[in-house]
Amino acid sequence: MDTGALLDALREQRIGIAGLDVYEEEGDYFFEDLSNETIEDDKLARLLTFPNVLVTSHQAFFTREALTNIAATTVENLEAYFTGAPLENEICYQCNEPECRKEKAGRCF
Q1: Chain-centre distance for alpha carbon 99
Q2: Separation of alpha carbons 54 and 31, rounded Å
Q3: What is the arithmetic mean of pLDDT over 76-90?
Q4: Where does the pLDDT of residue 31 fall: very low under 50, low under 70, confident under 90, or very high at 90 and above?
Q5: Do the Cβ atoms of 28 and 38 come closer than 8 Å?
Q6: Are 43 and 3 in contact (CB under 8 A)?
Q7: pLDDT of 67 higher than 80
Q8: Computed from CA positions of residues 16, 22, 24, 25, in that sequence, does the dihedral angle turn out positive or negative?
């Protein structure tokens, strides 16, 4: 997301409401209680001033439907791994092969 563009669109009322579960620079703010601290990230601080912006800090996933889907995907991934099936959700990040194994076999490892 381009936070600067979102801020511009909110200011110009081209966007009426924004709901954010993820923020690009969230690592410094969303994993501990900093409610008594000053936010030094100017873009995040500005976003939080809008009455029509909701930042949930990774809480939007916490629905019955989302958790059911996460559990089903996890079980499917485990079954595929142990049966040797293609791994649809595998992220290949250490491929040193001249040809991509995932493209040929459906999995890297």
Answers
A1: 29
A2: 17
A3: 91
A4: low
A5: no
A6: yes
A7: yes
A8: positive
Spatial contact of 44 and 23, defined as CB atoms under 8 Å apart? yes
Terminal-residue alpha carbon distance, the chain:
32
User: Distance (Å, rounded) from C-alpha 37 to C-alpha 35?
Assistant: 6
Residues 6+ apart with CB under 8 A from 60: 19, 21, 66
Q: What is the pLDDT of residue 37?
A: 79
The domain spans of the chain are 3-55, 64-105
Cβ-contact 57, 21 below 8 angstroms: yes
Mapped to the 3 state alphabet, what secondary structure does 28-83 carry? HCCCCCCCCCCCCCHHHHHHCCCCCEEECCCCCCCCHHHHHHHHHHHHHHHHHHHH
Q: How many angstroms separate the CA atoms of 90 and 51, rounded? A: 39
Question: pLDDT (tens digit, 9 = 90+) per residue, 34-64?
Answer: 778 787 888 888 998 999 999 887 777 778 9
One-letter identity of residue 105: A
Residue 90's identity, in one-letter code, is E
Q: Which two tokens stand for residue 57?
A: 């800090």
